[in-house]
Amino acid sequence: MWIAVSPETPSDWLHHPVAWSIVHKPPHEALGALEVMDFGAIILDLPIPGWTSAFLLESVQRIAPGVPVLIRDRAATLDEAVRLAHLGLYQFLPAGQAGLDRIQEAVEARRTSDLVQLACQVESEEWQRMLVGSSREMRQLHHIVRLVAGRRASVLITGETGTGKEMGARALHLAGNRRSGPLVAVNCSALPETLLESELFGHVRGAFTGAFQNRIGRFEQAQGGTLFLDEIGELPMELQTKLLRVLQEREVQRLGTSDTVKLDIRVVAATNCDLAQRIAEGRFREDLYYRLNVVPIEMPPLRRRLDDVPLLASHFMDKICALEGIAPKVLTREVVQRLCEYSWPGNVRQLENSMEMAITLSGDRKTLLPADFALPLPLLDRHPPPPTPVVAVPDCGLDYEETLAVIERSILEQALRKTGGNKSAAADMLRLKRTTLAAKVRSLEPAVGF
Q1: Which of 74, 59, 62, 70 is nearest to 104 (CA)?
Q2: Domains of the chain, start order
Q3: Which band of pLDDT confidence, cut at 50, 70 and 90, is reported for residue 375?
Q4: Neighbouring residues of 382: CB distance < 8 A, sequence distance ≥ 6
Q5: Is 444 helix (H, G, I), strand (E, B) or coil?
Q6: CA 352, CA 348: separation in Å to the nearest integer?
Q7: Helix (H) or strand (E) holding 23
Q8: 3 state SS of 293
Q9: Which helix (H) or strand (E) covers residue 202, if one does?
Q10: Residue 41, SS3?
Q11: Which of 49, 63, 317, 362 could form a disulfide with 34 if both were Cys (CB 3.0 to 4.6 A apart)?
Q12: Where are the alpha helices (DSSP H) in 362-433?
C-alpha cells in the first residue's frame, strides 16, 4: 500500500487501475498515519501551502526511515531536485504525469530489500539477535564477539546488573564453532556452598551422605560446548582453588574418585562486581582472575547507549506480544522520547520489565502512552549546569592584565608557603624551572613576601 501526501486527491490518480492501493492524506494526517501503519512508498504531491519540500521530506524520513519517498512538484527547479536527492529522495516524478510505474518500482525495491535483510538474519546472524542495538558500543561488541567466538580462550564478561551478560555469553556460544554443542549455565551465587562443588564437578555414589547415585557435573555436561559461570565473584575461596586446577589441567575429577575426565569446553565467566577490589581484599584469587580474564568483554550500561532504546523497546514489545498472543502495539513519538530521556539504572532488564508492564496496563488499546510507564527515578540530565567559572566577570568588566597578575601572585604565594620558601621545591610543585619561578617572584616583589 502507498500513501500520497497531497492537499487534495490528485485527479490523475483517481481512475488509475491501481489507485485502490493509494491512501490520500493531507500532510498532518499523513504524518500521523505513518506512525501507526507501514507503507511501501510515500509520494509527496507538491506544492503544499505552508510546507517546504525539504522540511516535509525530512519529517517523513524521521518517522518512516527506509521507506522510499518520491516527489512530484510542478514548481520545482533542477537545483531543487538535486538538493532533495542529496537529502535522500528516492526519485522525482515527471511534472504532469502520474508516475505510477515508478512508484511501483519503488515499492518492489523496498520489498526486495526487506526480503534480503530478513534472509541474512535467518541464515547466518542468529547470534546478533542476542545483542540488540546499533550504537557505537554495540557495534564494537559485535566486532569483539566475531574475533573471539571461534577460539577456546576463556572470556570474562563484566557489567552492571541487567546489562545482558548472559545474552553476551549466549552470543559467543552461537557465533563460534561450538554452537552445535551444549551451553551449560551455572549461577555461582544461587547454590549453597555444600552443593556447588558437586554441581560443578559431579560425584560418585557414596561420596558423601545422600550421594545415592553417580552424578555428572556441569563441566562434563558442557563437553564439546560452552560452560557459563555467572556471578563468578561469589565463588567461595576453596572452590576457586579447585576451579583454577580444572582450568589449568583441562580435566575434572568427580567427588569420591581419583579418576579424571578430559575436558573439551569453552569457559565464559561473568560478574557485576569489581574483581580487582576483591583480590585486594583477599576474597578472590589473583591467578584465577588472570586465567578467566584472557579475553575481557564489558557489557555497556544502557545509559551509555540510549540510541539503542527505540530498537530495544520495539524488540521487547514484539517478544512480549508474541508470548501473550496479542497483536504488536504502537510506540508513539512521545513514548520513545520519554524512554530515551530516562537514565535506566536497571539497564536492559529494567527496560524489558517496563515494556511488559506498559503492555499489560494498556489493555486492548493499540497505542502505548507515556502514562503506561512508571519511571519513578529522575530523568537523565542531558543539559548539566555549566561549571562554576574560576573568575567571575562582572557586568562592568575588569582589568585583564591586573586580574592575571593577582591570580599568578596567589599561586606563587601558595606554593612558596607550602614549601617553606624553598624556591626549588615550589618550582617543582608548579612544574616550572627554578629560574622561571625566581624571575616571576622578582617581578612581583614585594607582593610575594618570600
Answers
A1: 70
A2: 2-120 (3.40.50.2300), 128-298 (3.40.50.300), 303-372 (1.10.8.60), 400-444 (1.10.10.60)
A3: confident
A4: 341
A5: helix
A6: 6
A7: strand 22-25
A8: coil
A9: strand 202-203
A10: strand
A11: 63
A12: 400-418, 423-429
* Residue 211 to residues 30, 167, 289, 315, 437, Cα–Cα distance (Å): 70, 34, 32, 45, 79
The pLDDT, as a whole number, for residue 317 is 92
Q: For the residues 25-42, what does the mean pLDDT come to?
A: 70
**Phi-psi sector, 164: left (phi>0), alpha (psi -120 to 50), beta:** left
Give strand ranges (E) for 273-383.
295-298, 330-331, 367-368
Neighbours of 140 (CB within 10 A): 12
Higher pLDDT, 87 or 369: 369
Helix %, strand %, coil % for the chain, to 5? Answer: 50, 15, 40
Q: Are 154 and 292 in contact (CB under 8 A)?
A: yes
* pLDDT of 11 above 80: no
- DSSP letter at 48 equals B
Give the position of cell 554452537: 179
**C-alpha span between 440 and 434 (Å, rounded):** 10
Tell the residue number behind the cell numbers 564439546, with chain if given: 224
Q: Whole-angstrom Cα distance, residue 176 to residue 127? A: 9
Cis, bond preceding 49 (omega within 30 deg of 0): no
pTM above 0.70, yes or no: no
Centre a 10 Å sphere on the Cβ of residue 58 and count the other Cβ atoms it contains.
Answer: 13
C-alpha 7/C-alpha 28 separation (Å) is: 10
CB 426 within 8 A of CB 419: yes
What is the amino acid identity at position 146? R
